[in-house]
Amino acid sequence: MKVLISGASGLIGTELNQQLTALGHQVVRLVRRPARSADEMFWAPGVTPLDPNLLADIDAVINLAGATTGKIPWTQKYERELISSRLDSTKTLVDAINACPNPPKVLISGSASGIYGDQGDKWLDESAPKGEGFLADLAYNWEELAKQAKTRVVLVRTTMVMSKKLGALGKLLPLIKLGIGGALGSGKQWWAWISLEDQARAIIHLIENESTSGAYNLTAPQPATCEQIIKELGRQLKRPTLLRVPAFAMRLLIGKAADELLLCSQKMKSHRLEQTGFVFKHPTLVESVGYVLS
Q: What H or E segment, with its residue span, contains residue 98?
């Protein structure tokens, strides 16, 4: 296949590029500077349209563009960037796909677990209602825009990605290694998670499985709380994880991002993905932490 990726330089995009290339597929990366080689394509979402003829020989589009939610605290200016970086890029791709005489067979469009908001101990499958909050509104609008593409559309609801390159664990892992890490808030909030390797494998699986469409929770089948994840990291690193971070201190330091990113509870199911025949390489927390620390 010939696969076009936006957000190709990010954590997930980089892993996808490597896995697709290893499988013999051709990857073209969308870049915001002049293209330097045949595997790059210039675009300027929100500024100029993307020539639909450039997509005529593309088999699949993977849309991962979007500013990181991990840059905290969120100022009003940065919230606008979080919105525009997702919606402008998605609209640019959807418009090009819809105007293309021979459109790509599938659009894999990024979304996020944030669409569910804080749901406590409720099990969350893809039919769960939209939650409340900034991230829920953003993910909902992101998905609605992607669904306008006149091709097969798959929405990948991304969760916390467990990576050797740190990623979501970038600020926590160094503290745990120093023996000064601990649960955030009560620690009882459910954190949906998936290994980076499985994240990319799942996206490729959804491209190849032509019967798939709609939303998929990209989360490992074993749920875990914040406290369980941090304790397992500490156990495998042989470090204590006793220094809990109070919720009020987090809210004081980083504002509403504390509630929407770190203190909210999302007990997500991966049953819809598993029903397609996908098999995780790191289905359990112990295996995923071992993968991160290997």
A: helix 76-99
Are 291 and 162 within 8 A, CB to CB? yes
Residue 135 carries which side chain, given as an amino acid letter? L
SS3 276: coil
- The secondary structure of residue 23, as a DSSP letter, is T
The type of residue at 159 is: T
Separation between Cα atoms, residue 139 and residue 157, nearest integer Å: 9
Q: Give the burial string for 174-184 (b: 16+ CB within 10 Å, else e).
A: ebbeeeebbbb
Backbone phi and psi for residue 184, each to the nearest 5 degrees, phi listed first: -100, 125
Confidence (pLDDT) at 145:
98
The long-range contacts involving 74-82, CB below 8 angstroms and separated by at least 24 positions, are 74/134, 74/255, 74/256, 74/257, 79/134, 82/138
Q: Which tokens is 22 given?
A: 């290893």
Q: What is the pTM of this model?
A: 0.96
Q: Are 41 and 16 in contact (CB under 8 A)?
A: no
Which residue positions in the chain have pLDDT lower than 70?
Answer: none
- How many residues are given for the chain? 294
pLDDT of residue 164: 84
